Amino acid sequence: MKLIVDANIPAAERCFGEFGSITRVPGREINAEHVKDADALIVRSITQVNEALLADSSLCFVGTCTIGTDHIDHAALAARNIEFASAPGCNAEAVVDYVLSSLLTLAERAGWPLLSRTVGVVGVGNVGSRLLARLKALGVNTLACDPPRAEQEGEQGFVSLDTLIDRCDILCLHTPLVKDGPHATYQLLNAQIINELAPGTVLLNAGRGDCIDERALRGRLMGKGDITAVLDVWENEPGIDAGLRDLVALATPHIAGHSLDGKLRGTWMIQQALARHTERPIHNTFADICPLPVLGSLHLQEALPVEDALRLCVRAVYDVRRDHDSLQRQVLQQGIRQGFDDCRANYPLRREFATLNVQLSGNAVALEAPLSAAGFRVSRMS
């Protein structure tokens, strides 16, 4: 079996080596010639798996080690009887880590308490549901908007987008990109909505770039400048809007879900799917492919204000400012497109909050509930 695998997929040899020969290719460079005589293609989100790529291929299996599938032409796969698998939820915890790191950073910069704000989550899937759960556990007031789920499950627990925007200080977008139909998300936040956002609103998008009218957002930030934006996803990646990038408070290169744990989970999930397709047994577990974290534990001996303690522990694992600064630096050195891609291709090691055991003693035991709610493993020391 011949496998073409995105060069940035971790543990590929360990997870896919037993299926056959592996050829590693950078995701944006994978083309029809690579897959012409291949049996399986394993990608991430930057490879467009479409008619042009598949036309003369011999593929029988395509897997994407990502949550999203809008880079996949499902009709073209079905027409060729090519089995497809994705990894829903694989990096959801990492995206929630990203959101919490971002919001705690904005709160520190602006001097407002995060825990007293109302956060609206648009899109309550794998990421949105986990974000809501952590925020609620922290005691944050939350509202949820997900029209497809409200239609299927009933409106209880969901509000309309207009209601959410009207009542929330912070808006977090975690929707897939849907271009047509009654629940289309393409430019969900259009020019009218963006222009009507209340002053002081924080807008965070870690879903899909095309869900926001970026031209309108840039105009609002350049004009009134009275809202704050955090963008991890952009229109026209990697050729993102340089002007908009300079105006947002935190600008990162589509890396919200790029924890090592999330990537490895995606690889492992596609390994399972390929094993089912080929009817081969799996010889490793997810734990087998996960290395130990560099920082395994942190000991707090005295109490801190809750949000200070959260920032301390969050930044011990992941500090979003590093990724913002990295994008700014690489863009200056290499230009927008190359700088954006270089940040992704050479992304530094990052683990998830759950890999850190926060040990508490003395007065610090009062922090057990909020630290657990944020996603850390917490234990008491005598």
UniProtKB/TrEMBL annotation:
Chain sites annotated for binding substrate: S45, T66
Compartment(s) where it occurs, according to its Swiss-Prot or TrEMBL record: Cytoplasm
Keyword Cytoplasm among record annotations: yes
Record's keyword terms, sorted: Cytoplasm, NAD, Oxidoreductase, Pyridoxine biosynthesis
Source species, domain of life: Bacteria
Top enzyme class: oxidoreductase
Reactions catalysed: 4-phospho-D-erythronate + NAD(+) = (R)-3-hydroxy-2-oxo-4-phosphooxybutanoate + NADH + H(+)
Keyword DNA-binding set for record: no
Residues forming the catalytic site: R208, E237, H254 (proton donor)
Enzyme Commission number: 1.1.1.290
Binding site for NAD(+): D146, T175, D232, G257
Pathway of action: Cofactor biosynthesis; pyridoxine 5'-phosphate biosynthesis; pyridoxine 5'-phosphate from D-erythrose 4-phosphate: step 2/5
Alphabetized InterPro entries for the sequence: D-isomer_2-hydroxyacid_DH (IPR050223), D-isomer_2_OHA_DH_cat_dom (IPR006139), D-isomer_DH_CS1 (IPR029752), D-isomer_DH_NAD-bd (IPR006140), Erythronate-4-P_DHase (IPR020921), NAD(P)-bd_dom_sf (IPR036291), PdxB_dimer_sf (IPR038251)
HAMAP family, per database record: PdxB (MF_01825)
Matching PANTHER family: 2-HYDROXYACID DEHYDROGENASE YGL185C-RELATED, 2-HYDROXYACID DEHYDROGENASE-RELATED
NCBIfam families: PRK00257.1 (NF001309)
Protein purpose: Catalyzes the oxidation of erythronate-4-phosphate to 3-hydroxy-2-oxo-4-phosphonooxybutanoate.
Protein name: Erythronate-4-phosphate dehydrogenase
